[in-house]
Design goal:
The protein is built from 11 helices and 5 strands. The chain is α/β, with parallel strands linked by helices and 220 residues long. Helix 1 links the parallel strand 1 and strand 2. The longest helix has 15 residues. Keywords: DNA-binding, Phosphoprotein, Transcription, Transcription regulation.
Length: 220
């Protein structure tokens, strides 16, 4: 089955470019488009895409609020990749904190766009881990840091779970973590699932943000 994608951007040329890049791949299908975040929820419910590629800045409802709305109101929501012009943008970090699974630069090369969609759909690796670390260092605030520290303390991760979280934060995939720890990939998947459950995290990105904001991992 192909990875299905919904494109959301207020610039028709951006949507056309993304569609051309993604539909050139035999394993990716663009199932719909929207010009604003306000149209996302009905389209997600109708089309059930695997991934939503969504502009972070739009005139009526931006990508941050649209991400929150999708995750709050849609059962079994899709993965969300926010599209941005600038990498070190506070809007991007807020979108990640809101629940987006990663971000993609508008100037990205076609191969990077395709890789990002596939990676987020699989959910077994972190997209641009170095950039997530830099965003946490720049835009993490004291209130968020205090909440993250309290969350991590309540989680009571085991030693192995903490080790897995560190490797996740460095951007390693399940297979790479398995090789590093000399265990099977199914064992790693179990540890990752336990970490996400204990942290109440929707995905790896949310768990890694908690790791950085809490001080468990040093952002710089």
């Amino acid at each position: 089955m192909p990875v299905t994608v919904l494109l959301v951007d207020d610039e028709p040329l951006v949507r056309a470019g993304l569609r051309a890049v993604l539909e050139a791949q035999p394993d990716i299908e663009v199932v719909g488009e929207a010009a604003d975040g306000a149209a996302v929820i009905p389209l997600v419910r109708q089309l059930r895409p695997d991934v939503v590629a969504m502009d972070v800045r739009m005139p009526l409802l931006d990508g941050i609020e649209a991400t929150r709305a999708v995750l709050r109101t849609v059962d079994d929501p899709p993965k969300i990749v926010v599209i941005t012009t600038f990498e070190n943008d506070e809007y991007v970090y807020e979108a990640l904190r809101a629940g987006a699974d990663g971000f993609l630069l508008k100037r990205a090369r076609p191969a990077e766009i395709v890789h990002a969609v596939r990676l987020v759909a699989e959910g077994e690796s972190l997209l641009f881990p170095a950039s997530v670390r830099q965003l946490a260092a720049r835009y993490g605030d004291e209130a968020g840091n205090l909440a993250a520290r309290a969350l991590l303390e309540r989680a009571r991760l085991t030693g192995r779970e903490a080790e897995v979280l560190r490797l996740m934060a460095r951007g390693l995939s399940n297979a790479e973590i398995a090789a590093r720890l000399v265990v099977g990939t199914e064992t790693v998947k179990s540890h990752v699932s336990a970490v996400l459950a204990k942290l109440g995290a929707r995905d790896r990105t949310q768990a890694v943000i908690t790791a950085y904001e809490s001080g468990f991992m040093a952002p710089a």
